[in-house]
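quick one before i forget lol
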Amino acid sequence: MIGNGSGVAEAIAGRLTDIHDFVETGHGPFDLVMIDAVDEARSIRFLDLSDEDFERLCLAPTIRLERMVGMARTLAGPSGSLLLVGTDAFLGKPESAPQAAAAGSMIQLGRSLGRMHPPVRCNMLILPIEPARRSPGMFDDAARLASAVAGSETLCGLRLFIDGAAHLDSRYVDHR
């Protein structure tokens, strides 16, 4: 497990070892490498962004993710699985433009990786960006899905939302 250190990937990994008999080890190559790409939960309107805000919320996470994926690729076994753990970037809320751009980069990178490096597979788990919207059950579900994609030889390029169907809600759409 590598990445931002948000605690989200760690919570999923803990459940994988407790419930699904995964063994966490420090010696590669690994069958599953989880990459924590969880965004900072800060709302700020795009037009109010300072250069520093844009750098911190969009550019830096995207560059960091690219570097982490490069490292993860070398850690995965010859037919291993990469699992990007990211967020819903406030589901399109106007105050989330930088996080949405970073999350979009994660999704496109994840989808491309599966095509570029077979038989290594890459899938994405997407949880709510706001910690208050995350429930313990979501981490259990994330571990179940992580186990399924890690054990599969064909699942690749999936975006799996673990948010109680919140991503289907259009509550942030402003029909002016």
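fyi The mean pLDDT is 83.
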